Amino acid sequence: MSDTIEKVSIIVSKGSLEGVYPALIMANGARAEGIDANLFFTFFGLDVVHRSRIDHIKVATVGNPGLHLATMAGGLPGVSSVMTHYLEKKMEKLDIPPIPEFVEMIADTGAGIYACKASVDLFELTEDDLVEQVMGIITVGEFYEMAAGGEIIFT
Fold first, then answer.
1. Strands 136-138 and 112-116
2. Which terminus, N or C, of the chain has the lesser number of Cβ atoms within 10 Å?
3. Which residue has the higher pLDDT, 146 or 2?
4. Mean pLDDT over all residues of the chain?
């Protein structure tokens, strides 16, 4: 048995800024280490690879204990936009790319980017709705075949 990880498959199910970046950072880090990486976007995670939504991913401010905001405060108009802008500026200072650029960068490293067929069907999407970096719309079974022998990470 090897002591090193050779392949990771990352499931992205959340469409919020704080739900997406960990997956992108993990995939990018895996590729930088020479580890094969695949991203499987499902449910609201599809927003990250949706042509008209990729530029509009926001921080979830309601019910997000990590923000240490009262639920009522997080639900006020504009709070999500303000928090999103604040975090994007902080990430920019750290040279963390915006989501569309990050998805493109990761695809360019050879990582696989896939959309979940069940979720695509649920939200009545087509391949034309997805960014060009999506390599295919696959079933869960196809994802498991692809993930075989590697680590599965759920974000």
1. parallel
2. N
3. 146
4. 93
Share of the chain residues as helix, strand and coil, in percent rounded to the nearest 5:
50, 15, 35
Residue extents of the structural domains in the chain = 7-55+99-144
CATH number of 7-55+99-144: 3.40.1260.10
Helices then strands, counting H and E runs in the chain, come out as 6, 5
Closest CA to 119 of 36, 11, 37, 28: 11
User: Structure pTM?
Assistant: 0.90
Work out the pLDDT band at 133, boundaries 50, 70, 90.
very high
Question: Of 80, 73, 134, which is closest to residue 107 (Cα–Cα)?
Answer: 134
Q: What is the largest CA-CA distance in the chain?
A: 53
- The pLDDT tens digits of the residues spanning 56-78 come to 999 988 877 787 777 777 788 88
Helix (H) / strand (E) element for 120: namely helix 117-122
Kindly state the tokens that stand for 36.
Answer: 């094969």
